Every structure is written in C-alpha cells, then in structure tokens.
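Students often ask why we bother encoding 3D structure as a string. The short answer is that it lets us treat folding as translation between two languages. Here is a chain of 276 residues written in the first language.
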Amino acid sequence: MSCPDCYRGSVHEGQPRGEVTKAYGLDTYVVNPADGRPAKGIVVILPDAFGWEFVNIRLLADSYADKGDFKVYAPDFMKGHPAPLYLLESMRVMGSDAGIFTKIRHIFGILTGVVPFLWINWPSKAWPRVKGFFEQLRKEEGASQSVGAAGFCWGGKQVVLLGRGDQIDGRPLIDAGFTGHPSLLSLPADINSLTLPVSFALADQDTHLPVEKAEGIKTIVEAKPESARGEVVVYPNCSHGFCVRVDQKFTEIAKQADDATDQAIAWFNAHFKSSA
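And here it is in the second language, the structure alphabet:
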C-alpha cells in the first residue's frame, strides 16, 4: 500500500509557463525549453498521487525544461482521478494536536480520497495507460529523439515498470529513467527486473522505503551490466515526497530537492547522449 507520507507536504507558489494540450491520447501539460532553444530530448513526468494538474508537478516540469533543455510532458495518466489536494490538510491535522472529533472527521475525508484514487490508479490498472502513451511517443517523436521518464511516489513505480525494457518497433519505450522516492514497489523483484538504466533519489527518513531497502536497491542496480546500470543517491534529513512536496520554508531540505532535480537532469543528459 502507499504510505501516509504519500499525501503529505506543501503546495508551491509559482505560475507554470507551459500549456495544456492533447498528446498521444491523453490530456497533457507540455513545456519546451525557454527562448526557443532546441530540445535535447523528451522527458515525461509521471506524477505523485496528486496528478498532472498539481502545480508542483507543473513547476517541476518547467524546471526540467529550463535547466535541462528538454521538452517535457506531464500527462493525465490517472483518468482524471488523482488524490484530492485536501488530503494535504487532512494529513497535517492528523499529525497535529487537534481534538479527537476533528481527527475523526478528517479520517473519513482521507478514506473517501485515498480509496478511489488507489482503486482507479493501482499500478496494474494504470500500466496500460502509461505503456500506451510511451508506445505512441516512441513511434512518433521518440523515433528520432531520446525519451526519458521521471516518476515520483506513485509515478516511481511506473518508471520502474518502464525500466523493464518493453519495446515497440524494436526499441525500448524509454532510454533512461529517474525516480524520486517511489512507492508501491515489489522488492527486490521490481529492481531485479530492470534492464534499462534508472536513477533513484531516495530519502534517509522515508518510512515507506527505509535506508536498508535503499541500500538493497543500490546493491542491485550498481551490479547490473553497463547498459542497465543504475544509481542510488540517498538524501540526508529528507522524508518521503521531498522531491515534489518539500516545504520551501526549510531551505536546507529545499536545497536537497533541487539537488535531486539536478541529479535527474544529469542522468538524462548522460544517457540521452549515448542513446541519441
């Protein structure tokens, strides 16, 4: 199951600069490199539980486009059924000293928000949507450009599934993957199944994926053949969700989130060069 921290965090301030369009069958937020610079490749963001419309996800897409010179897609892989944003407040209340009756009210809201989200977007149900998007992308733009996938929490599982190396027209659906604090993984089976390079940004205080499991992932991905070799970076003093929903008032943790963004961009740059 997903963990409570999958629904905790902060909403970021800012105005996304991309546009909404229909891409490969899905409503999609898309942003191109600034100032007309040519794209080095395509990165598709697979979001956390709050989905493609979450402002944090769109601002992160902008950051990938601005800092990495990628064309970035953030599609609606959840069929219009992400986790509702009110869960952020409900989870805050549950961790506070609020009264028991207040918490009971929020528990009801949490259940009515989380259960439908998981029912519609359980990994096995979402995978055909994800796979279909990437198949079309690879056949069209991805026929001549490198393709990467960056997934967070819920989306991290889908990146790992993409990392198994499913193909269309004799090519894998992605060239490389990146995931920040993935959830819903089956360990170690999911990691053993990787045949493509995937970079992991993990948190040392992640109760869903504690350090000992992070070290297990690191051991497996770093022992793979060069064509599939991954990396694991464990960020100190961070918890699950830090890549997307960090409270920016805490500047040291916000810096770690920025470092994870740089990790993803460096990973794609390295593997796009070798695969283009």
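Translate back mentally: The domain at 4-275 is CATH 3.40.50.1820 (Rossmann fold). Keep this in mind for the problem set.
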